[in-house]
Amino acid sequence: MNDRLLPSSCRRSFTFVELLVVLLIISVIIGMIESLLGRGLIRGTQVKAAADQLANVLRQARQLAMDHHGFYGVSFNIQNAAGSSGKVLNNRDGGHWYRIIGPHDTDWQGGWANGGGYDLPYFFVRNINVVTNQNGTPQPYQGDTELGGWLNLVQKDFVGPKYVLPKGQARFIALTDEDNGNFINPASHFSPTYPRPWFGEFIKASGDTAPRLYAWGGYEAGDKRFITPRYGNKACNWSGFYYQGDDSPLTGCLNPANRFIIDNPGGTIQVNDPKGAVAVPKQEDFPLFTQGQVRPLINGDWLDCVILFNPDGTASMNDWMSMRHQYGQTGPSTYGASPYGWWWWNEGSNMNLPQLGPGDMCNFVNTQNDAIPYGSRYEASNYADVTGMYYITIGGDVPDDTVQFTNVQMALKSMLPLYRVGVSRLGEVKVVKIDTTMPSGVVLDDKWRQSCWSSQNGIGYAGYWNNVALSTTGEQLMPAEDFVTTTMMSNQQWWMDP
Fold this sequence. Notes:
Layout: H1 16-68, E1 72-78, E2 96-101, E3 126-131, E4 138-144, H2 147-157, E5 158-164, E6 170-174, E7 178-179, E8 196-197, E9 201-203, E10 212-214, E11 224-226, E12 235-238, E13 243-245, E14 259-261, E15 269-271, E16 286-289, E17 306-309, E18 315-316, H3 322-326, E19 333-338, E20 341-346, E21 351-352, E22 380-381, H4 384-387, E23 389-396, H5 408-413, E24 418-424, E25 429-433, H6 459-465, E26 478-479, H7 486-491, E27 495-496
Parallel strand pairs: 3-15, 4-21
Antiparallel strand pairs: 1-2, 1-17, 2-5, 3-4, 6-23, 7-8, 7-22, 9-10, 11-12, 12-13, 14-16, 17-18, 19-20, 23-24, 24-25, 26-27
C-alpha cells in the first residue's frame, strides 16, 4: 500500500540512532573530501597561483623597461623561518618574497649600468687608515666603503610592494638550475652532495646513516677555509651558498653576531677594529646585520639574485651575489709577510674593503691559485647557455625541516606540486607545471651521475664552469627542464642524451 494513503501516525520515522549514523557518515565523507582537497587540490591551487603571480610581475617589469626605455629588474629574497635548520628552504615565516626594482636619478652614480647590471657601491673615494699589524702601525688604504648609502639607494629604487609567497603554503624551491656549494675554481672539485639540481638530491653521503634529501640552497655544516679576512688571517665558515662569514657558524638561520660598517662619507678615518664587533659613533655605525636576526640566504635588499629586463625587453640574470663578490675581490694586490703570516693586501684605488662589508660571505678565495675574475665565481648557476631560459622553481611549503624520508618517493612528494616560472633571454615569460614521469623516448646520460661530479678537473668541472654537458661523442646534452623523477633524485642525474 502506498504510504501516502496511511495516516501520518502510521508512517515510519528515523530514530535518533539512525540520524546519528547518517550524520556520522556525512561527516566522514566531508572529512575525506577536506583531506584530499586540503592536502592536494587546495595546496596545488595556491602554488600555481603563486607561480602565476610571479609570471605577471615579471611581465610587468619587462613592460616597464620597454615603456620607459630603462632597466627594470625583479629581486628575490629567501629567508628561512627563525629557528629552522635551513637544510631545506621554508617559508613558514613569510620570508620568501620578490620585488620590482627600477632606475633612479641618473645624476647619482650607481643604478642600472649601460651594460645591464646594477652598479656596485662606488659613491665616494677617500682614504681610510686601517690597522693591520700587532704593533698598531696603520697601513694606508684608498677605497670606498659607502655600502650603507648604496643599500639605502636600493630601497628608494624599489617599485611597488613586496610580493610575498603565501606563508606556509608555497616556497621557492630554487632560484637557479644548480647549486654549486663549495666548488671554487679549476683546482677544486664538488663535494659529495654537490652540485644540487633545482629539485635536489636524495642520496646517502659520507656520514649519513640513511639516504636523505639534499635541497638546493640547503644549509650544511662545512669546513672552515681561509679567505681574505675582515681582520687578520682567519678562516670562514661555509654552509648553504658556501661562505657564511668569519663569525660563528649559523644556528637556527640566525646572525651569530653584530656587524657594523663605516657610514661616514668623506675624510680620513682611523679604523681600529675592522671587524666592527662594537660600533664606533660616526665611524662604524651602520648595522649590516645584528645578532639574533634571521639571516637571508638570498638577500633581496642586497640584490643577490635579480632577473633584469633591458630597454628592448630582453632579459639576463648575470649578477649573482655581485655586491658580496665586489667586497671580496682582490684588485691590484701585493703578496707579502705580516704578523699573521703570508697573505694578500689590497692596494688598488677605488676598491672596496672586504673587512668592512660582506666580502667573507661568498665563495671568493683570495690566494695566488684562485686569482681569477670574481664575476665568474657563481655559487649557483643557470643553464641558459643551453636552454635559453632562466628558471625560478616554486613548490609547496613544508611544516618542518624533515630531510630523512622513508624513500625517495616521499622526498619528492614533500616538494609537490612544482611549478617553474621561466624567462627566456628574449624576455618572454612562461609557467610550466613539473611532471613526475619521464617523457616517452627520453634517456638520461649515464656518464653525468654521481662520482663524475667529484673528480678533480674532471667532466664535472666542465659542466659547471661552462654550463654545458657533453655526451661521450661530444654532443651537447640538454638538462631536464619540465620533469623530475625519483631516479633522477637518487642518481644525481638530470642531463638527457641527444
